[in-house]
Design brief:
It is built from six helices and five strands, in the order βαβαβαβαβαα. By secondary structure, the protein is α/β, with parallel strands linked by helices.
């Protein structure tokens, strides 16, 4: 069984993320989606648990997609879940340089155990990012083109609570 890891903060998960998950699930036997905290970001819209719950709900009927909370380095989460590779999504050329650097670091810190597979987002998702979704949402504009209804609904509920 060939397993791959798709790690990210998914705050929130977008249709772009889901496009990469779909592509990976068509190529590999199992995709482990690891919800992780981005150390570069001080605050999150959703907690790790809330993100986990949303993504599990989205993929509850997909037998080859497993959702976990990941801690530490993505390569460690990949190794722990017996993955052969980490999947990364590319929206365009601007993502490429960063991903090449990240690939090399991940290869080194995993003692050459974990490789990286880059998948390009389909054209309709190349401009979507979680940051952009949160920004559009914060000015009370429609985000239904960028996230699934469950995500939009959970964002509305969370906004009312805050």
């Amino acid at each position: 069984m060939i397993k791959v890891l798709y790690a990210g903060s998914f705050d929130p998960i977008t249709k772009g993320h889901m496009n990469i998950i779909k592509q990976a699930s068509n190529l590999f036997d199992e995709v482990i989606v690891a919800v992780m905290q981005n150390p570069a970001k001080q605050t999150s819209f959703f907690t790790l648990k809330e993100r986990l719950d949303i993504i599990q709900e989205l993929y509850k009927n997909h037998n080859n997609i497993k959702v976990v909370i990941g801690t530490g380095a993505a390569v460690d989460v990949a190794i722990m879940n017996k993955c052969i590779s980490i999947v990364r999504g590319l929206r365009g050329l601007s993502d490429y340089d960063y991903e090449v650097q990240l690939r090399q670091i991940n290869k080194e810190i995993s003692n050459n155990q974990i490789n990286t597979v880059c998948l390009f987002a389909d054209k309709e998702y190349q401009f979507i990012s979680s940051s952009m979704v949160k920004e559009v949402f914060s000015i009370n504009k429609d985000i239904s083109n960028y996230v699934e209804p469950i995500v939009q609904e959970r964002m509305k509920v969370k906004k009312m609570i805050k």
